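Hello,

I think I submitted the S-adenosyl-L-homocysteine job twice by accident. Can you confirm which output corresponds to this input? Input:
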Amino acid sequence: MHYRVAILIVLFSAGTAFGQTDDRSLRENMVDKQLKGRDITDKATIKAMLEVPRHEFVPEDLKHLAYGDGPLPIGEEQTISQPYIVAFMTQSLNLKPDDQVLEIGTGSGYQAAVLAEIVDSVHTIEIVEKLGLRAKKKLRELGYTNVNVKIGDGYHGWPEKSPFDAIIVTAGAETIPPALIEQLADGGRLIIPKGSTASVQQLVLATKSNGKLKTKTLLPVRFVPFTRDRNR
Ligand code: SAH
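Support: Only one job matched these inputs. Its output is below.
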């Protein structure tokens, strides 16, 4: 009996020493309380949120807050969104594994990693070079070979890789950039925080059907602003 307890203790400490037991259980707790405890029910989204190590996408000194219920600064005046908002936007896109997805606003790369757990191919554009390069390196290190990061102004989308089945904009914009509507496939879904003030926007889901766009307002949110050609 004593022997068995001792083995369990050794196994447990080996797991925590590598941080695996720890961060997995922190994510389980995050999913139970912050996501399932609200309105996140999509199985693929929940699985992705359990898999992606959010602590790898936040600054070193904020790692202890990685599984908390809020956004965090990532440098360059930008933020990684609250886990619930990442899950909510992902769930709203109703993704299928073979969907081609475009993200505008790579930031830390976390949202791109969540998408990459669900679909075969993710393209993501970041306007701040330093953030884009850092995200690219991190995604490569973590083995997300199905994410393609580009530095540039997402206002123009990524025409060479279009059409996209889903487009997610993670910066608050006044209007939906026309190029993104053009690059959305028929039957495609686009989600964007839309609003004329920098402090509050409405999350809008647009769907394209027979060339026509239908929009639906989902939730008030607060995102950093969509900028144009800032570092050029
Ligand atoms: N999805 C990110 C968080 C996004 S924060 C994550 O998971 O961490 C919003 C990001 O959008 C910022 O990094 C900002 O620099 C970027 N951004 C703002 N305007 C942009 C534009 N026109 N094109 C591409 N990226 C843009």
